[in-house]
Design brief:
Bound molecules: phosphoric acid mono(formamide)ester
Order of helices and strands: HHEHEHEHEHEHEEHEHHEHH
Number of strands: 9
Radius of gyration: 19 Å
Number of helices: 12
Strand content: 5-15%
């Protein structure tokens, strides 16, 4: 795998939270917290990336990630090139690698990449030019590092910086979820007291993804006393047939309702990365209720993405690098 940290210990690419040093992760969270007002447009736009172009190179659909990277880059003064795979020569069979090399030839040095294949962003980082920086905006089931960071920031704002006493429950389609993997990496790095993972056996990974977690398929039991519930979307686009009997059955066994949430700690918070399958993994009442941090996650996404773009940009002696 491409080294995302260079020989001087600085972040060049952000490909995964797996192995990202705690100090680097915390610095990104701290920075995002500081610039949150800027991120939400309440203070002046900054010009760190003036004269540079950031390309959102998305081979899969997105609302939150793509839009928030675009806003983040613009708030830092960059021009943004939104690459639309569905209207590009990708449709004629051009590879992601050739697409990257062609955009680099136009002077683009910053890429935010989403792809359906595991490892696709790592593979692009392997062939990227010397001055190019890549941020993984989600590859297959593998990683969604900025989602992991924004979820950690949201939890930290709600529960404080000491995660050692927290009980966090991740629920649902863990098997197909890059969000779950990045959340698990962030939660472990931050020293979370107990990480519980719950879902039907058919949707739990059978590799070492869940090492060190308390794992079970009884949602009601797993909810007891937790401080945070991180719900996952059913990844129907990545799912083989028959893993879930029916959406009604799934909701009955793993849907978060207000009554169920009563089993968690009184001040428990609820997260969901979106997009939400309302009435399947979570009810409207919970998604829009007082314990839900769903929209705070979205707001924090802009701040985290500004912090990531800012941090990787610092590699360059001149802003033109990114
Ligand atoms: N959470 C998330 O990645 O949402 P999008 O697919 O809309 O970017």
């Amino acid at each position: 795998m491409t080294q995302q940290i260079d020989s001087d210990g600085r972040l060049r690419h952000l490909l995964t939270l797996d192995g990202l040093p705690r100090e680097t992760l915390c610095r990104l969270l701290d920075r995002a917290g500081q610039i949150r007002d800027t991120a939400l447009g309440r203070t002046q736009r900054r010009n760190l990336l003036d004269g540079t172009t950031v390309c959102t190179l998305f081979f899969e659909p997105s609302t939150r990630t793509r839009s928030s990277f675009q806003i983040a880059a613009q708030r830092l003064g960059a021009d943004v090139l939104n690459f639309d795979a569905s209207a590009s020569s990708t449709r004629k069979g051009e590879t992601a690698r050739d697409t990257l090399r062609n955009l680099e030839a136009m002077g683009v040095r910053g890429f935010v990449v989403r792809h359906s294949e595991d490892g696709a962003v790592d593979a692009l980082a392997e062939v990227a030019g010397e001055g190019t920086t890549l941020v993984n905006a989600g590859d297959g089931r593998s990683a969604h590092p900025t989602q992991g960071l924004l979820d950690a920031l949201t939890l930290r704002q709600a529960k404080g910086a000491d995660f050692s006493r927290l009980k966090v429950l991740i629920v649902g389609d863990v098997k197909h979820s890059r969000v779950a993997r990045s959340d698990l990496h962030a939660l472990r790095t931050l020293g979370t007291g107990e990480i519980r993972v719950c879902g039907p056996q058919s949707l739990l990974p059978d590799d070492d993804t869940l090492a060190g977690c308390t794992v079970g398929d009884d949602f009601d039991a797993m909810l007891e006393g937790v401080d945070a519930v991180m719900m996952l979307r059913l990844q129907r686009e990545r799912m083989e047939e028959g893993l879930v009997a029916s959406l009604d059955d799934y909701h009955r066994d793993y849907g978060l309702t207000q009554a169920r949430l009563g089993r968690a700690a009184r001040d428990a918070v609820v997260l969901h990365p979106g997009p939400i399958n309302r009435g399947v993994e979570i009810t409207d009442e919970v998604a829009d209720g007082p314990q839900s941090l769903v929209l705070r996650q979205v707001s924090n996404g802009v701040a985290i993405r500004m912090a990531v773009l800012e941090t990787t940009a610092r590699l360059s002696p001149e802003a033109a690098r990114f």
